[in-house]
């Protein structure tokens, strides 16, 4: 069962991916016949652009995967660094349209704002694949119709894994606090929360959410949030932080408060994995952004080479396993 006595925040997003081993989608190769709604198979060399901010470890790892796969495919993929700035992104889109490239891999800075940009590219005849960040504000697993595909992790499944971790960490149930992400992509944060509740309930956990606060995806903000929550609710036995950075900040606050509450994170980052090994975080959910970048590049290249306008599957995810001290070796950090 799940109870809730108060909610101190309005959930919005992330920023924040586990491919155990890359399970790459093999799309149909070039053929001599047209698929329905497709165009003639491409025979020329592809000219692709990625739009990925490089100022943080996670997107930098996504970009590394994109470029790695481009090199393996013999396709040059130049990146436009949009610097976490929506105006930079809008300018980049106009430049891409002028260049008449064959396709774009977009890791949007703001999913809601990116809807217009994707439509502009689509109307200019340039196929767009979104990676990691949702375009639009609808259901996370229903990609914008102007996309070739959306390659990401299932945020609901990741939340579900975190909920099962929480049930294992606190089998007797009790009061818990949630440190939420904030910023863009409300639906992703919502899915991480809903998935957590579903996973915990499926495992038979009897939790009561007594407090929620935004951690803004940073360790410092999460530390302040957990400090406030544990002071107001000293009986909290577990915190679910929706990223490893926030989990680390929360763990620091609990240590200072001499609280024995356990912490669950999401991300599989080096910081999160190191904290699991040190015992300050109970567990996390393993994302692998570089492998996700590989999958994104392969999906777009295979789709274009097949002369199609849509990938065989438009919502493409991978497995995100739960990680604790007992299986921490299964998650080699990629960011």
UniProtKB/TrEMBL annotation:
Domain Periplasmic binding protein residue range list: 50-307
Which GO terms label this protein's molecular function in UniProt? carbohydrate binding
Which SUPFAM superfamilies does the entry link to?
Periplasmic binding protein-like I
Q: Name one GO cellular component term.
A: cell envelope
Q: What is its main location?
A: other
Protein's cellular compartments: Cell envelope
Q: Which InterPro entries match?
A: Peripla_BP_I (IPR028082), SBP_2_dom (IPR025997)
Family designation: Belongs to the bacterial solute-binding protein 2 family.
Protein name, UniProt field: Sugar ABC transporter substrate-binding protein
Lineage at the top is:
Bacteria, Bacillati, Actinomycetota, Actinomycetes, Propionibacteriales
